[in-house]
Design goal:
Layout (H helix, E strand, L loop, with lengths): L26 H9 L6 H14 L2 H9 L2 H9 L8 H18 L8 H20 L9 H20 L12 H11 L3 H12 L18 H4 L7 H23 L3 H12 L11 H8 L3 H22 L1
């Protein structure tokens, strides 16, 4: 639009930072585009960070993010050995970058690049642990640290080998001891993580429609309800709950038996249970503590009788 003569011109607002990288058709084009984005100077970074913190300026946040996209690409490239798509690693790293930008404090005296590396790696680590195997190989913080450190050390050990056995996947006893000593963990923890990492996912259901169904794990998993030990334990438990309980009650005197029955074996129509300690105490003319003592002594006698019956 042409402005009338004499009209004062105004400074245009900066272009939308999110439009600096247009929609692209492939990953290579994206990486090439972000590598051409200009880096921010320390002063510019401070200005944009304060605008975001003090005024919640979305455009300032966009410029901080855009200027560090190449950092995410660089970090994501370090995790290509896990067999996961490079584009997905970059996407998760970008999520970590945006979290870092949101929490960045320009008054702490550090550059955003140093602060963001932690958040980027944390998001990528979480994505790898969720998607590297169907079943997580590491759940605790110590296991996660061991997972990434052990994998890195294994690659280094194999690279340092000069005996022609570079295709060996498992660690030797000496290597296990070296890893445990270097990472300050137990030898058993290294072996357990090594086992988890070397294993793979196994589908319980058959993956094809041919006659291989009979060989799927679902076909030969044990049925615990018909396992001999489980059957014997069930029968023994049922016997103790029936005849054994009656024999245990028979060893008690009438007062102790009634207290146990009222306290533990009686259910009223309103499912509120039997009598309370105070109700029984009022009936027998003793204190509630005395009723509790009788109950404890009766339970000991019954336990002894049940043990002998078993």
């Amino acid at each position: 639009m042409t402005l009338p003569s004499g009209t004062a011109t105004t400074t245009l607002a900066p272009a939308n930072p999110w439009a600096l990288v247009p929609p692209l058709g492939n990953l290579d084009a994206y990486i090439s585009a972000v590598n051409r984005l200009p880096l921010l100077t320390h002063e510019e970074e401070q200005i944009y960070a304060r605008q975001l913190r003090d005024h919640n300026d979305v455009d300032a946040a966009g410029r901080l993010v855009m200027s560090h996209l190449r950092l995410v690409v660089s970090i994501a490239r370090q995790y290509l050995g896990y067999g996961l798509p490079h584009g997905d690693l970059i996407q998760e790293g970008n999520v970590g970058l945006m979290k870092a930008v949101k929490r960045f404090d320009p008054d702490q005296g550090v550059r955003l690049v140093s602060y963001a590396m932690h958040w980027i790696k944390a998001e990528i680590h979480e994505y790898i642990l969720k998607n590297w195997r169907m079943v997580k190989v590491a759940t605790t913080k110590a296991q996660r640290k061991l997972f990434f450190n052990l994998r890195s050390m294994k690659h280094q050990l194999k690279a340092d080998q000069a005996d022609g056995q570079t295709h060996r996947n498992t660690l030797t006893e000496a290597e296990v001891a070296h890893v445990a000593s270097t990472l300050n963990v137990k030898r058993e923890e290294v072996l357990e993580m090594e086992t988890r990492m070397s294993g793979g996912d196994v589908a319980l259901e058959p993956q094809t429609d041919d006659e291989g169904e009979a060989f799927a794990p679902i076909a030969y998993l044990a049925d615990e309800t018909h396992e001999p030990t489980h059957v014997i334990e069930s029968r023994s438990r049922d016997a103790l709950a029936g005849d054994g309980l009656h024999r245990a009650l028979d060893v008690l005197d009438p007062r102790s038996r009634r207290i146990v029955e009222e306290r533990w074996l009686k259910v009223n129509d309103d499912t509120s249970g039997g009598m309370t300690l105070h109700e029984l105490a009022a009936e027998y003319g003793v204190s509630a503590e005395r009723i509790r003592q009788i109950e404890v002594a009766a339970m000991k006698k019954m336990k002894k009788a049940l043990t002998e019956a078993a």
